[in-house]
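As noted in the main text, all predictions were made from sequence alone. Below is one such record, for Geranylgeranyl diphosphate synthase.
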Amino acid sequence: PVLYKPQTQSSPQSNKQRTEQSTNTKLKREQSKPAMASSSFSATATISSSHHHHQSQSLLFNKPFIHNSFIFSKKSPSLRQPLKLRASASVAPVDQTAAALPLPLPDFDFKDYMLTKADRVNAALDQSIPLAHPIKIHEAMRYSLLAGGKRVRPVLCLAACEMVGGDESLALPMACATEMIHTMSLIHDDLPCMDNDDLRRGLPTNHKKYGEDTAILAGDALLSFSFEHVAVRTPKTVSPDRVVRAIAELGSAVGSAGLVAGQIVDIASEGDEDVTLEIHKTARLLEAAVVCGAILGGADDESVERARRYSRCVGLLFQVVDDILDVTKSSEELGKTAGKDLASDKATYPKLLGLEGARRFAAELVDRANGELAGFDPAKAAPLYHFANYIATRQN
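Prediction:
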């Protein structure tokens, strides 16, 4: 706030003029800043002692704070330019799971939104793959697909569609497709030849339940069916060129330049001390979910690219927080085996940046993600603002 203390000899009229002048000066300062959907948006972050601040100290930066400590002589992970970190008056302690604390977001019932959208996605997924012949393969597909989870990718897809003015029905088949592909990746990641995991979402992994051969085939079937589902079930009110564009986006996210690339780099980086953040595992599927939602919702090219940049920040944030949780939470808290990345010496963000550095990087990503939503209707973009904060502060 702009504080004004009148001089003792000033008249009431001059006081009013000075107050108005001070207010106008403040407004000009605010207008000269980069446009944001709401001037109250900011990101909270831990500030290390290298910046000559105690961790418990309350700090309010009136100007953007350029923070590059996450580099540590390594390359920036796909974010080439310095990130502007706006710290709020509260600084998170270093033992927090993520660096970001709840932001001053629009008045919005995010929990209810998540539950409502997840219920609709779950119902659509249940209907999409009935228990048909051959029973075993469809049972294995449904076992992992309907095993729960937050449905982050499909809900993001629906939120992006609605943010650009579309109805959720336009993107619901695509939302289901992203979850089918995500489930496929989990089934395959858990295989003995990959991460060799026995627990997923609190249940035995697919290959433990049905055997490795069936688990591989279940993943393959989910992958192929996801594209069929989008092509057949997307409402006819969506133009064919937008459907094709969305399918191409989804395909690029899964292939050798997307999900598969991330997995192969993940395997190759085990025990590699020279790995850089530049080649660390990415979150292309989450990006595709947001971008496809915007495309199917009728967004213009500029809006699609803003949604893409937002999703890249959030996708990377999701991975950073995942890495932090892997080394700070128990298997019971996570619903999957904790410490697997540490045991296999994978190139995680806590390994490359240190735990505190990973938390600071998470805060920077929240700030960048929020900035990319500028220009959209704040009410329609509210779910995506809340998503970034939710992912940064999740505990499992």
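DSSP finds 16 helices and four strands in the chain. The longest strand covers residues 65-66. These features were considered when defining construct boundaries for the mutagenesis experiments described in Section 2.9.
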